[in-house]
Amino acid sequence: MQDSVTARYVIAGGGTAGWMSAAALSRFAPPGTQITLVESEAIGTVGVGEATIPQIHLFNSALGLDEAEFLKETRGSFKLGIEFDGWQREGESYMHAFGDIGRPLGLLPFQHYWLRAKQLGFAKPLQRYSLNELAARTMRMQRGKTAAGREMPYAYHFDAGLYAAYLRRYAEANGVNRIEGKIANVKQNGESGDISALELEGGEKIEGDFFIDCTGFRALLIDGALGAGFEDWSNFLPCNRAMAVPCEGGGDFTPYTRAIASKAGWQWRIPLQHRIGNGLVYCSDYCSDDEARETLLANLDGAPQAEPRPIRFTTGKRRVHWKNNCLAIGLSAGFMEPMESTSIHMIQSAISRFMALLPQGRAEPATIDWFNAQSTFEWERIRDFLVLHYTANQRHGEPFWDLVRSMELPATLTAKIEQWRASGFIHREHEELFTEVAWFQVFAGQGVEADSYNPIANALPEADLRALLNDTEVALVEQVQPMPRHLDFLQSYVNGAART
Ligand code: FAD
């Protein structure tokens, strides 16, 4: 190692994961850190991944990105939630909207009051008590506080390729060295098994102290070289294919992602400034690739802009994400279908866990174990949340949906469903990504009934409960009505007029 260089990080792969990692390291690693990224234009990237969750703000603002510039560069739009269309049964839809539902009331979360009102027969659908859903359904968007002082948490839809390109410019400006080339061999130290270098086709060697595997589904380092192994979750989430195609804009410019249930899976719809991203996620046992292509093309709002592109995957995760001096981030770490837009978030959370440790080479075993335990916890709880959408369907008589309704559940999910059913209580462990409010919306939306609620909710006189729900509803309508339309707001924001 040269005297002035304190640590050499080598990032293998330049998709969203690679460039997010490079950007974060270039921003936060101490002076003297050498960061190299190798990618191959000939191999390319997975080219999908356009919907996010609100946590992305933390990442972008940690980098100091200007939001309007970011939206302009990535042709992005705003996102207030995800609509699940037909997941309980055909013709019904609900939303997992970001942010709170109802109003906080004393000791109890809102769900208990809503469950009580439901038993009394006057609870309205959750939409009426959610600022985000009300705004989303009426195609409105606003940043900052409403007249009543509330904020709408939001995320983005963006072109993932443009996001990676934007972060590449950022990282290169901060000193990241990008090397174009195909990794042909991963060199390891004989005794420890640690990775010592990546050897490119043509023989060039890139040496490093720590390696970040962002090679996508190939997982060249973490699995190819280090044999981390794979935990297959197809028994919980059996979809294994996607067919993706962008189309021309059309229909509503929704400030939300749509996930539309289909015969053997579901279709996403993600509106960007210049196009709509679409894709069908499906299970190959119940739908052929030809049928998937036809279904996808038959359900577009505008003319397709390319040939539909097939993607194969197996749901699950590497047994460990960190092994020796290598960390897998992105698709190399594993994959779960994007119905809740979680993959980019998992990239971000892996980066932030890593930055909290920032090893200068091989880390202590306890550090590696901690990291892997945290990742496993995060991934398993997200998996449970995804499985809930499937298991609670009422699409009887459709073979794929019958299968996913009857599949064995992870024990952690069974426990959550049982608690909810018995008492309306939602148990969320400290570091879980999805909040009680998120679970509440999916329980309610999928028709998973709670038989009871916390009796403390009975302390509120019935007339006060009615007034509470009614006032909440009226107040939300008043806050949403003056908001601009999503498209108008986006255009003026990106062009500078609506910036605060
Ligand atoms: P990739 O984009 O595949 O990048 C891999 C990189 O490694 C490329 O640069 C490639 O050139 C390089 N590489 C590979 N092999 C070599 C080699 N031998 N030599 C040199 N370089 C090499 N996420 C969300 O958050 N929201 C979504 O809505 C969403 N939708 C998705 C839909 C589908 C169908 C799929 C499959 C994924 C989706 N994701 C989504 C996940 C998201 O796309 C990924 O998490 C994200 O793009 C990161 O991908 P990546 O960088 O790990 O891999």
Automatic annotation (TrEMBL):
Transmembrane segments: none
Active site: K79
Chain positions recorded as 7-chloro-L-tryptophan binding sites: K79
Keyword set, alphabetical order: FAD, Flavoprotein, Nucleotide-binding
A GO molecular-function annotation: monooxygenase activity
Keyword DNA damage: no
Keyword Phosphoprotein in annotation: no
UniProt: L-tryptophan binding residues: E340
Protein name listed in UniProt: FAD-dependent oxidoreductase
Annotated FAD binding sites: G14, G15, T16, A17, L331, I344
